[in-house]
User: Fold this.
Amino acid sequence: MPSGLLLAGEDVTLRDREEVRNRLPDILGRALARSWLDPDFEQYFSIDPLGALEDGGVHLPQTMFIEVTKSVADRPKIVVYERQEGSKFKSRVLYLQLVMVAGK
Assistant:
């Protein structure tokens, strides 16, 4: 497990769906940037994104979970889901995938 750096600049607890939607995309962007530079963090984040976020000082509601997928040719895709207690169904809270843009 790589040593932790605070991904939000401070210890942060996101308490509800709205806070997650508003604040987590920037934090996940930082996590992806760190993944490009730190292969150990990339592996950890892809296997246990919630654990990597918690080690980076970011805490989500217990109803939230994250899936990270990456094929060989694709950039990572991150989907944050919410599952209410006692329910088998999950709802997508947000989706993040970096795209490459070239300009002249």
Remarks:
- The mean pLDDT is 88.
- The beta strands are 12-13, 58-59, 64-69, 77-82, 91-97.
- The chain has three helices and five strands.
- The helical segments are 17-37, 39-47, 49-55.
